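Team,

Forwarding the record for the chain on the shared tracking sheet. I've put the sequence and predicted structure together so nobody has to dig through attachments.
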Amino acid sequence: MELGSCHKDTFAPSPRKVGLPPPPAGEGWGEGLSTTGLPMVDPEHPEWKVSDRLRANARALRRNSTDAERILWSELRDHRLNGISFRRQVPIENYIADFVCHAAKLVIELDGGQHFSDQGERADAARSAVIEAKGFKVLRFSNLDFMTNRAGVLETIAAAVAERAPTLALPRKREREQEKQSK
């Protein structure tokens, strides 16, 4: 049998590239389309629309967190602090808040050394005023404060949440456990 006459079934990729369709609303890459194929915008809250630039900046900040932000996120994520839900690098108006608890309307900011110049303090005051105008309370901690007194910072955050949202629901896991016990 000649080498050239041998028939082999091989798979050759099509030269035409087919891209993936956008995910359905609420799933996937954070840029879904509604079932009608239109971009997602809440008609009751059109001001919630976040610009593509701001969304990209928030994603970049999530990928490039400081050491203090990574450590604080490890304490806040997955409802680890008293069952409280937090998100990180959340766009609010034209700013990106480090950590947000929506249930308590609380913003946590971790500030590095650049925030303690006159210009940095003025910028932070303007930023806080805009965020507070949306109904949030802003708590600011320096990276040094957090790194040297982590327990104190977490206690302050938990107290602020309890003050602003005293009726937070139990974490889902506990709710399910209590339902099973009551049956």
